[in-house]
Amino acid sequence: MTGMQMPSGVHALVRRTHEERVMRALQENGAMSRGEIARVVGLSRTTLSEITGHLLQRGAIVVVDTDASRREGSGRPAERLALDPASAQFMGVDFGHRRVHVVVADAAHEIMVSGAVRYEDTATWGTRTALALELVDRLSGEAGVHYGALQGIGIGVPGPYPAPEGAAWPRATAGTTVLRPAPEGVDVAFAERFDAPVIVDNNTRLAALAEAISGADSVADLVYVRLSDGVGGGLVVGGQLVTGSSGLAGELGHVTVEPAGRPCRCGKRGCLETVASVPGILAACWEFGLRLENLDDLADAVRRAHPVVDRVLREAAGALGRVVGAATMMLNPAKVVIGGEITRLAPVLVEQVAATLAAEIFPTASAGPLVAAARLSDDDGAIGALAAVFHSSPLLARYPETADVKGRSDAPDSATEGAAHVRP
Amino acid sequence: MTGMQMPSGVHALVRRTHEERVMRALQENGAMSRGEIARVVGLSRTTLSEITGHLLQRGAIVVVDTDASRREGSGRPAERLALDPASAQFMGVDFGHRRVHVVVADAAHEIMVSGAVRYEDTATWGTRTALALELVDRLSGEAGVHYGALQGIGIGVPGPYPAPEGAAWPRATAGTTVLRPAPEGVDVAFAERFDAPVIVDNNTRLAALAEAISGADSVADLVYVRLSDGVGGGLVVGGQLVTGSSGLAGELGHVTVEPAGRPCRCGKRGCLETVASVPGILAACWEFGLRLENLDDLADAVRRAHPVVDRVLREAAGALGRVVGAATMMLNPAKVVIGGEITRLAPVLVEQVAATLAAEIFPTASAGPLVAAARLSDDDGAIGALAAVFHSSPLLARYPETADVKGRSDAPDSATEGAAHVRP
């Protein structure tokens, strides 16, 4: 807070608090009308107009367009406000097993650049990181954009993402903050390169967050499962991504569904992953004499309504439905989302999960959760990483105050000492 | 915030923020040494000493004792600080099926009065509420204490506690705030009577919160299950009690464990409750020819190491272990707590849950959650309700500002350090 010119008195404090809530709502949600902002931050239209008036005047926010194109019915179109798009950039990076995706968005949540580069699945983290940084440069050069006001970087990595034992969290690096340490220093490489805070998490969990907050019907409680080479999951509870006591939360794929089932790569037997992952589904088809090599073969068999495939998919979805049923009894989510390319190829999966889930929950529960296929594709992991950045409280955009914003310290404990030097 | 005498400038704002964090830590945790406070709120010892000096001088906090009696090893005993005990009271109320417990604690978390009164399980909520209010009056009269500065009331009620459809939340009543509407207006009755904010929740969930935060080794992520006439549960995730999208979270007792099992009162079959509740365990003993009528009979059979009882208890605990195993893979809790009187009578339950759980989680997870019997008994529900009040952010004690701090010359010397900076 050092370096801010703050008018004295309680009125200024209250206004500042209101302003921060408006700025945060715009950072989290992108462009919104005044009515939407008032609802989200819980201010009256009158108070809100005063606040947005100040912010518009200072250039902290701008009018980006009207909601005419999105509006249903008649009535005067409302202006949509957003953080000044040029005031900040946010980067999302998604490291998959064989490629990295990068997106950069402006403060109004518009994607400025986006791209991907492939690597071998044997590539080291050093190689992956170098390729990702080159990609960022190339995208910047091609589009003629600069990341001079990069506010935060979200990075998704594959696999469970536990905090290593004894790791300091958060750890500071290069004058900035890395919220959780990442494999082989990918976090430090990005933080140093862009001098911006970095968030790293498992990319399936980031996808869960993106599903929870994307669109107009965002939900605070969501169970997300992704079926691919493995079965990953992510939980959003009370609007927050659940990490667990040692970063291992969300492993729905390793809940036991068949105690005497196939061995799982995790060392257990009969995990959900052994029956509901793509390899698990293909293996079950083989057991019934139907040899399918890959997803394309499976899609073809689904189109031909092959009875073995239908049976295998329904059994896999039944097991998945029992696991998300247990999750639903525990967490009472508003929505259950099933992701992974296979759910697009085989809609029966989501149908059967919904049917099994309905049988697993309280008959008295008037309405169970909505069960739906993922909105974002597996290639949208970088959007999930971006969502995490937009939603992370330490990363609130530093918006223009009356004077400069230089020389501020982010270290909470030094704030007292520092503040003593800037009294007006 | 209006009406406060607030010195101008950033320094005061920062100090105020630090003070609020210290006050909140003391409200949530009761008496603590300066070292403990510094750790919890993340301030340096120097900054903290300045803050506690201000607060001691104003009388907002007091020195209650030293930690000599709790301290291991040698070294000078540290003073323990707390909110001024007389500055506030907090009430916990636990409505069971056949009795209501009430406790009132002061701001230092010391229990001032405590008592219970019984009713028939057919008693209406009107009767129960009237009996509870009479009990509060009687306790007050007997102990000669008054609730003149009651800051909040926590009320536990049995059974699932969903927010009724369409209910406004929070709803205002009698110039105060009821955070969630309760059965038959018990919330409104207490709020009107004491003019204090009321929190209502399922009493098993409140017990979960109390287990998570009680003692020196509080945890932020906890799975709680209580075995009694039914099987109830509560989840604490990231330090917050999980309610779910419609207030139904925590129903671990109705996760299906035997698809073809006994019918459950919820309308499903083979719920965990049908095998791990006390009636479920007694029924299973009957099926093996051992007729036990109640918990006393069961305790007796456990003492005699009856093989049927051992087998039934291990099977019940195995089913429970699989459910908390699934919960553990999803939520990665630091601790799993099993409550209910039966866990005290039959320690084998907790042992078997721990063994089954160990087999259900990642072999690679270096350490699974601690599995333990509940610290608080079923009769301690009012303590859970109290914990919810201490932890509820809207209920931060209104602590004395510059005005009402007269007659406080007994502040220890160490507290005067920062006094010169306090503006009158």
From TrEMBL, chains A, B:
This is ROK family transcriptional regulator. Residues 401-411 have a biased composition (Basic and acidic residues). Residues 401-424 are annotated as: Disordered. PROSITE patterns: ROK. InterPro entries: ATPase_NBD, ROK, ROK_cs, WH-like_DNA-bd_sf, WH_DNA-bd_sf. Belongs to the ROK (NagC/XylR) family. The lineage of its organism: Bacteria, Bacillati, Actinomycetota, Actinomycetes, Kitasatosporales.
